[in-house]
Amino acid sequence: MDVLNAIIVLSNFVLIPALAYGSQLALGALGVTLIYGILRFSNFAHGDTMAFGAMVAVLVTWLLQGMGVNFGPLPTALLALPFAIMGTMALVLVTDRLVYRFYRKQKAKPVILVIVSMGVMFILNGLVRFIIGPNDQKFADGERFIVSVREFKAMTGLPEGLAIKTTQGLTVVVAVICVALLFWFLNRTRTGKSMRAYSDNEDLALLSGINPERVVMYTWLIVAALATVAGVLYGLDKTFKPFVYFQLLLPVFASAIVGGLGSPIGAIAGGFVIAFSEVTITYAWKKVLKYLLPDSLEPSSLVQLLSTDYKFAVSFVILIVVLLFKPTGLFKGKSV
Amino acid sequence: MSDFTRNALMFAALGGLILLTGTMQSWNSAILILNMGLISAIMALGVNLQWGFAGLFNVGVMGFVALGGLAVALVSIDPVGEAWNAGGTRIVIALLAGAGTIVAAVISYQRVAKGLNRTLVMLSILIIGFTVYRTILDPGVSAVEAVNPAATGFLGGLGLPVIVAWPVGGLLAAGAAWLIGKTALGLRSDYLAIATLGIAEIIIAVMKNEDWLARGVKNVVGLPRPVPYEINLQKSASFVERAESWGTDPVTASTIFVKLNYSLLFAVVLVVIFLMAQAALKSPWGRMMRAIRDNEVAAEAMGKDVTRRHLQIFVLGSAICGVAGAMMTTLDGQLTPGTYQPLRFTFLIWVMVIVGGSGNNLGAVLGGFLIWFFWVQVEPIGLWLMQLVTSGMAEDNGLRSHLINSAAHMRLLTMGVILLLVLRFSPRGLIPER
Question: Closest Cα of chain B to A200: distance in Å?
Answer without folding.
Answer: 19
